[in-house]
Amino acid sequence: MIANLVQLAAAEEQNPLVPAWPELLIGAIAFAIVFFVFAKKLLPNINRVLEERREAIEGGMEKAEAAKTEADSVLEQYKAQLAEARHEAARLRQDAQEQGAALIAEMRAEGQRQREEIIAAGHTQLEADRKAAAQTLRQDVGRLATELAGKLVGESLEDHARQSRTIDRFLDELDGKASGTETAEVAR
């Protein structure tokens, strides 16, 4: 049978598109050997490299996702700290304003108290000066009145007790008249 095929093949003209039988058989065996070598040696290496690259890419993506998550977390912490710092600054500003207002009120009260003390001391000094002036005036008026009365009567009024009583009575009458006049002026 093979011999018949060989004769048939030799008898027919060779078609350039159809390879010869032996070449086809040798080509198929060579292809199977190369395919087997590639499948056993090269394909596992290629798959391993592709798997490593896939894992590296996925690991990189996971790392990138973890870094993004961490960055988001740090950003949120920063925003929270910033908000807390702003809140603390506002609280400190409010405290400072309150302390300033309290200090101003305290200083005003202290100033008012000092003013009142100065006014009271001035009134006390005025009253003391007025009394001293009135006492001095009373003594001078009494002495002058006694001298005048002595000149009018022609005798000396040297009795101090009588002189003091007369002067005091006279000045009390003048004070009473002056008080009555002031009351009448105020009523007008």
Number of strands: 0
Helices and strands, in N-to-C order?
HHH
Mean pLDDT, all residues? 82
Q: Could you tell me how far the N terminus lies from the C terminus, measured between alpha carbons in angstroms? A: 167 Å
Biggest beta sheet attributes: none
Tell me the number of helical segments per DSSP (H or I, 4 or more residues long).
Answer: 3
Q: Give the amount of beta strand, in percent.
A: under 5%
Rounded to the nearest angstrom, the radius of gyration is 66 Å
Write up what this structure looks like.
The protein is mainly alpha-helical and 188 residues long. The chain has a domain at 31-125. 91% of the residues lie in helices and 0% in strands. The chain is built from three helices and no strands. It is rod-shaped and about 200 Å long. The model has no long low-confidence stretch (mean pLDDT 82).
Topology, element by element:
Blueprint: H1 2-11, H2 21-153, H3 160-187
Helix pairs in contact: 2-3
Which characteristics define this entry?
188 residues; mainly alpha; rod-shaped; 0% strand; single chain
Give a nutshell description of this structure.
With 188 residues, the protein is mostly helical.
